[in-house]
Design goal:
InterPro entries: Kinase-like_dom_sf
Number of helices: 10
Structural class: alpha+beta
Keywords: Coiled coil
Order of helices and strands: HEEEHEEEHHHHEEEEHHHHEE
Distance between the termini: 31 Å
Protein name: Choline kinase 1
Strand order of the largest sheet: 1-2-3-5-4
GO molecular function, one term: ethanolamine kinase activity
Strand content: 5-15%
Shape: globular
Pfam families: Choline_kinase
Low-confidence stretches: 1-7, 345-365
Length: 365
């Protein structure tokens, strides 16, 4: 991860952040006052922000006794992807729901958060059946949250906005390679073909990669973190996003490479969806499981387009050490590869009594 050159990593904090930390020191009363004594540890795997764990020594606490907190430095250009004020409002509301870390303070370049004493999941954890079932139940709980703001799905207009940004930033060569001239037609087509049914809408995380999921090893409680992209959306999109993230490992030697052969198979996807639907206490029918699974598969296309555009834009606006352009290339290549296998005659779109749309049965990788 690229480190900012403002001296932060050397313990020389920006003045606004110093004031936040000093205010916390006065509130807590048990931490040392010397800012140079703080241990600052970069946390790997973030692709939008830079995140640091801070170990704050306590007075008379003995060696190794610390308060811990998390400092998030906002990535450059992220306002193109989401509204930061909306994201902070979501963060605070989630905290009030008991769903995530508390907000401890804000400064212009970022914020200070409560450090959750839980383990961040690894890529391998997503494939563990027991852990996967816990994630499924947590997703259902998340989707059922009542959150402030519009409940209108903005996915398609957001993608059009991202496409406009990508066109304005791209070189002629990149625009041609990524076929930006035809992507608006693709977005319009997807909106028409896969979202015209009665798909259930819920409050979605929209970025449920393993690094945004934490587990308490003792209680097995799951916590979802980082709500930058959270909004009301089709729940099938959120499930599809999570399945796509099973093909990624952001802590490998090549974090930008997505191994689509690791996308979960039909049985694994249905097992997750079955756990998701049954977490409310009612056992779903097999038809309900299959119908939602089918809808999820088509929303995989929207995921590839969204994150492909995200990668293109990030290449031009974000300084984090990550090969955004290659990541975008893979997501958009996968879109074109699986599109013929997934898009079916729109006449098969229909709603069942639970609000899930049946969108065919063809399998896609």
């Amino acid at each position: 991860m690229a480190i900012k050159t403002n001296g932060f990593i050397d313990g020389i904090f920006p003045e606004e952040l110093k004031r936040v930390l000093q205010s916390l020191a006065m509130e807590w009363g048990d931490v040392v006052e010397d800012m140079k004594a703080l241990q600052v540890i970069p946390m790997k795997g973030a692709m939008t922000n830079e995140v640091y764990q801070v170990n704050w020594p306590t007075k008379g606490g003995g060696e190794g006794i610390h308060r811990k907190l998390l400092i998030r430095i906002y990535g450059e250009g992220v306002d193109l992807f989401f509204n930061r004020d909306d994201e902070v409002r979501t963060f605070e509301c989630m905290s009030n729901h008991g769903q995530g870390p508390r907000l401890l303070g804000r400064f212009p370049e970022g914020r200070v958060e409560e450090f959750i004493h839980a383990r961040t999941l690894s890529a391998a954890d997503l494939r563990d059946p027991e852990t996967s079932a816990l994630i499924a139940a947590k997703m259902r709980e998340f989707h059922n949250l009542e959150m402030p703001g519009s409940k209108t799905v903005s996915l398609w207009n957001k993608m059009r906005d991202l496409l406009g940004e990508a066109r304005s930033l791209c070189t002629v060569r990149d625009a041609k390679e990524f076929r930006l001239d035809v992507l608006e037609d693709e977005i319009n087509m997807l909106e028409k073909e896969i979202s015209k049914g009665c798909h259930q809408i819920g409050f979605c995380h929209n970025d449920l990669q393993y690094g945004n999921i934490m587990i308490d090893e003792e209680t097995k409680a799951i916590t979802l973190i980082d709500y930058e992209y959270a909004s009301y959306n089709h729940i099938a999109y959120d499930l599809a996003n999570h399945f796509c993230e099973m093909a990624a490992n952001y802590h490998s030697d090549t974090p930008h490479i997505v191994d689509f052969s690791k996308y979960p198979g039909h049985e694994e996807r249905c097992r997750f969806i079955r756990a998701y639907l049954s977490s409310s206490g009612d056992k779903p029918t097999e038809d309900e499981v299959l119908q939602l699974a089918q809808a999820v598969e088509n929303y995989k296309l929207a995921n590839h387009l969204f994150w492909g555009l995200w990668g293109i834009i990030s290449r031009y606006v974000n300084q984090i050490d990550f090969d955004y352009l290659e990541y975008a290339r893979q997501r958009l290549q996968q879109y074109w590869k699986i599109k013929p296998m997934l898009l079916l005659d729109s006449s098969v779109n229909s709603c069942d009594s639970n609000g899930y749309a049946g969108v065919g049965t063809r399998e896609g990788a």
